[in-house]
Amino acid sequence: MGTWLQVLNSLSFAALLFVVASGFTLIFGLLRVVNLAHGALYLVGGYIGMTVTVATHSFAAGALVAAVAIAVAGLLLDRGLLNFVKDQELKQVLLTLGVALVLNDLALVIWGGDSRTIPIPEFLQGAAHFGTIYYPKYRLGVLAAGILIFLLLWLLYNRTRLGATIRAGVDDAEMVQAIGIDIRKLFLLTFMLGSALAGLGGVLGGAFLTLYPGADSEILVYGLAVVIIGGRGSLEGAAIGSLILGFLATFGQIWFPELAYFVIFGPMALLLAFRPLGLFGRA
Amino acid sequence: MRLLLRALLIAFFAFVIAVPFVLSVYPATLATEALILGLFAMSIDILAGVAGRVPLGHGAIFGVGAYVVAYHVAVSGGNAWIGMLLGIATAATVAALFGALAVRTTGVYFLLLTLAEGMIVWGICYRWTSVTGAENGIRGVARPALISDPHIFYYFVLLTVMMAAFLIWRLVHSPFGQALRGISESSSRMRTLGYNVPLTLTIAFTLSGVFAGLAGILFVLLNNFVSPSNVSLDQSTQGLLMVILGGAGTLWGGFVGSAVIIVLSNLVSAYTERWSMILGLMFIVTMLFASEGLIGKAKALVGARSAGRKTA
Amino acid sequence: MDRRKFLGIAAGSAAALLVSLDPLKVLAQGGPIRIGFLTPLTGAAASSGRELVDGWNLYWRQAGTKIAGREVQVIVEDDGSTPDIALQKARRLVQQQNVHVLVGDVLANTGLAVAEFVKGTGTPYFMPVVAADDLTQRKRIPNVMRMPGFSASQMTRPLADWCLKQGYRKVATIGQDYTFGHEQSGGFVQTFTEGGGSVVGQLWHPFNTSDFSPYLGQIPGMKPDVVFAVETGADAARLLQQWATFGLKGHIPLTTSQNTTDQSIIRNLTPAETEGIISVAHFAEGRDDPETRSFVQSYEKTYGKLPAIFAAEGYTGGLWLADTLKKINGKVEDTKLLLSTVRSEVVLDSPLGKNLKMDDYGNPIFDIYIRRVTRRADGKMVNTVIATYPKVSQFWHYKPEEYMKQPPYSRTFQGIKQ
Lengths: 283, 312, 418
Prior knowledge:
heterotrimer, A: mainly alpha, two-stranded antiparallel sheet, 2 strands, C: alpha/beta, Rossmann fold, globular
């Protein structure tokens, strides 16, 4: 019975990881940019969502505004900064590292260091109970949201022209450009979508994991691990990677609390060394 | 012009040698720290600038050297000189392990893999309470009597760092160093020429670890204290920024970067808490406009002005 | 060749800057009283650090900054929530800014690093918050004192006693897996078991655990009468939140340490999540006492929020130091006199309570309150007092020398009496 609780915990945490990691993997897959500011975008998105939700008493409004705001942040990041170091992978990574530092400190200045939460809608408050098991309704909501977002992204990725173009671009960006598609516009759209997912993740996660200085690097580290394990540019990879990591993190904490970091970074390191493409990535 | 520059250089070296007499206690400590971190940056440059592999886990190697000495001296009550040898040996071992795994990758994947390796070491230092003191670190790491005086310690550090820097310089300008540069340009070409690329890189990684560990040892002797911050990602990031700021591949750039960062962080934090933001901005600006670093930028300026003149 | 020239220029400028950091040699006696104030303004403890310095500043703003004809100058430095940076800043304050006294820090590991440093320099170091037990017990340093911080295990023993009086006999504890968590839990558990209670389980989680479900899921199975939680910062907020959402609130009584239900936590949560939770501390913002009320009012007016414990500690630290300085006529250079006066000084009235006095080991003796989170008339949640334990020292009922024979609390030693 306790195990069922932990299984639900793993699944709901995995759902959140998926939302964050899917954005990361899209950007890594198509633009080949390891956006180390992705965690900071999550945190700032969460804070923005919190401010809007408190002001409007609407969680949905908070989530929407956060997603849009962070998509705009993504636009600025891509056009305003990354544009100048096009095609230089390493430089881009280090640049995003700098952006992460700036955003993190900015968030501290604007929202302070207190641990903040986001008010959740009435119908998700409290616990649902199945027999003797009590489980927070909100976490079930996160699980549902994760599944929904997976389905929507999957449809986008596999059943639309845009998705097909993105997938082609992940495989071979030069070829896509050669057949006349404006690859820069595609990159930008993808970057914005990926960023929006980070912002949305911040709102979803902020409501049950709270928002505080340091939450950005924590979620970044998880996101990195998911994408490495799942393979860059792959949605299924992000989903499977999130599940693996969700279970590792939850059960690892119970069974091997001392080895918490090893449980996450060990697999990540081994995969990077022996199978950098992860489970579903393609060269 | 040349005379002026030469005079400046001589004045600078004279200053470096006279630091304990010219600067008061606190700035002298900063100068010592700048030397130590300059060596740390130089060790990273062997990989980042020469071999073309940018690591983000060297903080862990640096910190491991520090922890081993700290444990040996403060917890086991052992001899500090032996502790230093142990520290270097451990750092080299960790580097060899990191390297053996990491040389299978390049570019961004190398960066991420070394990051992950560094995090594993950090996790161990943070949780292995009985040995590392966990979040409290290890305190009371006393210097051996011979070098306990701050002035004498400064000269000890200066001498050690200069010798190490000389060794690194020789290494990089040797056939081995040339092999690394070759690998940086094209590892497949080097392979066809008969070089064992993974082995060469692993050796380079290990040697880089020796010097990073040495820097860590000097650091813990300076502060009499080590904590998980010294093996953290922040430590690795700071070292990398120093390399890039000074100029990757220039080797001496590490010292320039180190001096700039230390002076700036002290100046800035006297007026504001926003050092982290400023550090981030420096990263961004450097990547956009000066990724070849201060030395590289200066070289370019000179090159542009005296077109056709051969650079050394 | 060019390379080295430009190294010369660049490094020459750096050297020039370094020299410029050299201070103008200070000031004869009779100049300002210089206090170095260390506090985390960035990093994990940023929110506590901010409240600490705000409380401290509020005191000086109200009392004025002149003592015995000398100006009191406070230099605030960010300790970055890490011992590394704390050490750097302490060094700078003492060696470069020539401060007479160091005050501050929040996290135990930063306090330990600074204490080690002042062991060598002899600078008086007063800690309003740092709670590492041994700094005033087995490893005490003569020039290091808590003002008005507490020793971690000191605070939680009265709560254990109170729990026994409520009839609870079986406790499960949950806490952050580091020194502070071990010490606070140890204090509780030793007193609880010495009074006839038993421990049915102890759950330790790493600092900064986002997901408490793996731990909360184990509690009902342990069948405790009461649960004792030791949390700080984000962990505290999440534990309280998840305690409610997992349906445990209202079913199993929850008692906590002082930080878990601190104002800085509960003001960001909903009443449903916090109301009725019992905790223990030397400060209660809802305490019905004129000194406390006036402090809370002026803090709220100045900063727009109710004060957390750190604010009260910062304020009272300023008060205690100022009182002492006045008594010795501002002669802060006389370290021996300063330290002995701090030890003998009795602070009659402070936001914490009455009759604050230092024990012989550099740790204050407090009135400790059992608190409950209640709703104020204006709807805000505060901690109000439901019981008081007067004059509690860090040694409880034990004889100091006897007590210090037992090892310091750790994950493996919790003082459990079989």
